[in-house]
Amino acid sequence: MLGRHVVAVLPEIDPVLFKGEIGLPILCVGSVWKSWELLKEGFLLALTQGREIQAQNSFSSFTLMKLNHSSALGGASLGARHIGHLLPMDYSVNAVAFYSYTFS
Asked: Which of 3, 4, 12, 76 lies at a 20 to 30 A Cα distance from 62?
């Protein structure tokens, strides 16, 4: 089911996100991802099938990532930006990759 959620939003994803070094970054939030080994087969199947239908040319790889900090940090950053202030953010340390996949 989680893979189907990703497939559902594929047409709306900014094409730039598919072109990065890590492929499409997918941020995984919640304790369900602690069971990744049990979810893996169904997740990959859903993405493979969805890719064939919706985004074969652009969606060639992806990386699953977990936050290192609370998601409230992003909210604070957006709030500060809204009132004209910039918080110093080091995006390279905000998340860690735990799985990468390239379609064959």
From this structure: 76
